[in-house]
Design brief:
Blueprint lengths: L2 H27 L2 H27 L13 H30 L9 H28 L2 H28 L4 H29 L5 H12 L6 E10 L2 E10 L5 H18 L4 E8 L5 H10 L6 E10 L2 E10 L5 H18 L5 E8 L6 E4 L5 H11 L5 E7 L2 E9 L6 H18 L3 E9 L1
Parallel strand pairs: 2-3, 5-6, 9-10
Antiparallel strand pairs: 1-2, 4-5, 7-8, 8-9
Helix pairs in contact: 1-2, 1-4, 2-3, 2-5, 2-6, 3-5, 3-6, 4-5, 5-6, 7-8, 9-10, 11-12
């Protein structure tokens, strides 16, 4: 048996004892206050039984027919309890008003009646505390509603005690006034209970949880754009549906990683949340990003680079280099290029034309590192351009010839285009100074 159901079962036993005590003594003493409390306990008995079965249903795992779980069974049970409370409170109020404005009734406020209500108060304090702690621990709406009922019982029991003491002093209406007070407490508790559970059943947004989720997502890296967040709750658990936008140039793996990061961020803010993330491309991305995304999505396109925009007689045209598998025939490559151009025009309608430069995808080839004796000229070129020695200089002998790999240290605050221009300048100078080097690869770092 789950801890929630054990707590509910203890409540059933306690309510049964209270019901018998209150009703027996109330009838013996003609105390409407005690009888009204007995009726109240009767409704609590029904409520506790409902809670016992509701939490048994609510803790069941999700299944094929209830894919979000069974948590709302608790809210349905709590709503049923509230309806019972309202009916009982109205009956108590009518009877109390009849006594107040009718002939009244003689109340025998004996010592044992007062002793019974004191025992009831002690039991009310105990069961309210137990149910409240359990509801906080297990985030149970049904146990929380039980705690609320027991709290109103406690206030009502104090009122009945005061009414009996007043009646014992000679004012018989004190008991009826206490009964009317109990009815007001019950109705107030029922209204609060109805409002909270109707909000859950109607999927009202849990405001605090939503704020925490939004804050967690916004604190992430700026490349993730929060487009929509929908939240609801059941049985103390939040369910979040999140839509995020990422760059259209992001690969599938990058989009998946962004979704995982959002799930983790929300889970840290709301540990009991069930999060589903949908990823969409950011539609207002730059022309370069949209063109790249459209091109890379065409089958057999392996790489896209050197995307450039040119203004031709007032119209914008786009050019790009595309790498395709080297074994394709020219006819096959041309068909892919036409498909690529069509895809780009659809994704970037503001451009007037697309020019593609087709390149074969370079397959990996064998290479070996070699030692080149004369490095002084290369080091001099780097010193004159950057003011410092290269951080690394190594050579590889490949099937295409000798390749120099060069690492430069530049000021970390310089613009990327400046760093690229500096690297390109050094590459050209090295090629002119060393014709035996077929290619120069320059890596820049701060």
């Amino acid at each position: 048996m789950s801890p929630q159901r054990r707590t509910a079962l203890v409540s059933v036993a306690a309510v049964t004892v209270l019901l018998v005590l209150k009703l027996t003594v109330g009838l013996l003493t003609n105390s409407l206050g005690l009888v009204s409390e007995a009726i109240h306990s009767g409704t609590d008995l029904v409520a506790a039984i409902l809670t016992f079965f509701a939490v048994g249903v609510a803790v069941r795992p999700a299944d094929r027919a209830h894919q979000y779980g069974h948590g709302k069974a608790e809210n349905l049970a709590a709503l049923g309890e509230a309806a019972i409370l309202v009916v009982a409170a109205l009956l108590i109020a009518v009877r109390a008003l009849e006594r107040l404005f009718g002939q009244g009734a003689v109340v025998d406020a004996t010592w044992y009646a007062i002793a019974v209500i004191v025992v009831v108060i002690v039991i009310d304090i105990t069961r309210t505390t137990i149910s409240w702690r359990a509801s906080r621990r297990y985030k149970s709406a049904a146990l929380a509603s039980n705690a609320l009922h027991f709290g109103s019982d406690l206030a009502g029991s104090f009122a009945v005690l005061v009414g009996l003491l007043v009646a014992r002093a000679g004012y018989a209406n004190g008991d009826s006034i206490a009964a009317l007070f109990v009815a007001v407490l019950v109705i107030a508790a029922a209204i609060r209970l109805m409002r909270g559970n109707i909000d859950v059943l109607m999927d009202r947004v849990p405001a605090d949880a939503e704020s925490a989720a939004r804050r967690a997502i916004r604190e992430m890296e700026p490349s993730v754009e929060l487009r929509r967040l929908r939240m609801r709750q059941a049985a103390g658990r939040q369910f979040a549906d999140v839509v995020i936008g990422v760059s259209p140039t992001a690969a599938v793996g990058q989009g998946h990683a962004a979704a995982d990061a959002v799930e983790a961020a929300v889970a840290r803010a709301l540990p009991n949340a069930d999060v589903v993330v949908h990823v969409e491309p950011i539609e207002d991305a730059s022309v370069h990003e949209r063109a790249h995304a459209a091109a890379i999505g065409v089958p057999n396109v392996r790489e896209v680079h050197n995307i450039a925009l040119v203004d031709v007689d007032g119209h914008t045209e786009l050019s790009l280099h595309v790498k395709l598998p080297g074994e394709l025939s020219l006819d096959e490559a041309h068909a892919i290029a036409e498909q690529l151009e069509t895809s780009i025009r659809a994704a970037v309608p503001e451009i007037a034309g697309v020019q593609t430069h087709l390149e074969p995808l370079t397959e990996s080839s064998a290479a070996r590192e070699v030692h080149v004796g004369d490095e002084a000229e290369i080091r001099r070129i780097v010193r004159e351009a950057t003011g410092a020695e290269p951080r690394e200089l190594r050579f590889l002998r490949t099937s295409a010839g000798l390749v120099a790999f060069l690492t430069l240290g530049l000021d970390g605050t310089c613009r990327l285009e400046e760093a690229h221009a500096r690297a390109s300048e050094i590459e050209e100078k090295i090629r002119r100074a060393r014709p035996d080097i077929d290619d120069v690869i320059v890596h820049t770092e701060p």
